[in-house]
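Hi,

Apologies if this is the wrong queue. I'm a grad student, and the batch job for Cytochrome P450 from Streptomyces marianii produced an output file that my downstream script rejects. I'm not sure whether the problem is my script or the file. Here is the sequence I used:
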Amino acid sequence: MPAEAVPRPPSDLLASRMRDPYPYFAWLRRHAPAYVERRPGRPAVWQVSRYQDVRSLLADPRLSKHPGRVPGYVPGPAGLNRHLVHSDPPAHTRLRTLVSTAFLPRRIALLEPFIAGVAHRLLDRVEHQAHVDLIADFAAPLTFRLICAILGVPEHLDAASTRNTLMATIAPRTSADPERAERDLHALLDVLIAGKRSGDEPGGVDLLGALVRAGDESGVMNEEELRSTAYLLLLVGHDTTMNLIGNGMLALLCHRAEAERLAARGAASALLTTAVEELLRYDSPVRDATFRCAAEPISLHGRTIRKGDIVSLLIGSANRDGQRFTDPDRLDLGRTPNNHLAFGYGPHFCVGAALARLEGAVAFPLLLERLGGAQLAKPAGELPWRPARVMRGLEALPLVRR
Ligand code: HEM
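Support response: The file is valid. Your script probably expects a header line. Output copied below for reference.
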């Protein structure tokens, strides 16, 4: 299709897409399934919105994950981009093998009592409060505590300031001090890695200790890869599951009948398993897949994605595609089948999927049980969403108990 024949998205949908991207996604799927934004001096960015296209391109080797292929493009903090999300085979395969054993479902399942214990303790603290922020009081500390436990971050570093250091590196460039955020992050990684080298082993999974040893003893990972991987895991192990709990609880609070259905069946029910999948689909924590660029020209819907163009695969849109899901805008906790793409697809499929599912399966019934009577403190349309590139998550989820 010639560029001039492609319609432009209506400005009201563009303006409200941070708060509610779904009308914008529906417009893209219908009118411009391969939509490109070109800005002077910047690489072209394609947005791909239909389920079938997103799924096949997630696994398409013509799309590279190596940012070095786009001149001048730096997707994350300097010196910390050599991790599995930004690599192609063979480096990707090597790095993925090193981390994936720590996240095997049978290993993760052993963490259930620990997750439930941390979750209960956090809820004990807010039990008598009339106002609760489900993000700051629960989802953020729970998910960060868990990824720190898996990595083997010593308890004295596992605190709000460490979390802030990490999150500042993905804050929008306009509102933060990016140089300072990067300096703080590098200092944190120095302390963490030096601690492992001097024999600081907190026990448990201690994935970071294992990675340091793998690099130092058998040389399968260099220093930049080690630092980048530690950063990646701390960030994605936390930000994603925090959004699952926040977006999922918001969906449940806005769909009382579905929430009551789940509360009545509770933990260990088949409904809980399908409910976690449906909450992942309905308001996907990773809205857009991570960086990809065309390593060779690709034709899509009569248009040509040129070599070097960036391609954004809109997972949140694919998961609401009516060609794939019946009644896609409806929350149906019993939905089966539910082949959503919330964890991606193909060689980069989420390493932490078993952990994320378990965190959801522990958190949702517990929250319904202990905070079930709570209500949103403001209308859903006024809640603050974090202005993030890839993720979709709330800044705060204020609740009141009456
Ligand atoms: C609800 C929570 C989560 C969601 C929705 C999610 C989603 C995703 C998605 C969509 C991808 C693929 C990105 C792409 O292909 O562009 C991915 C990859 C990844 N995820 Fe998750 N994730 C979650 C939790 C976690 C957790 C808890 C960890 C643990 C550290 C984790 C670690 C990773 C890693 C390391 C990759 C990169 C895999 C690779 O490139 O080979 N994720 N995740």
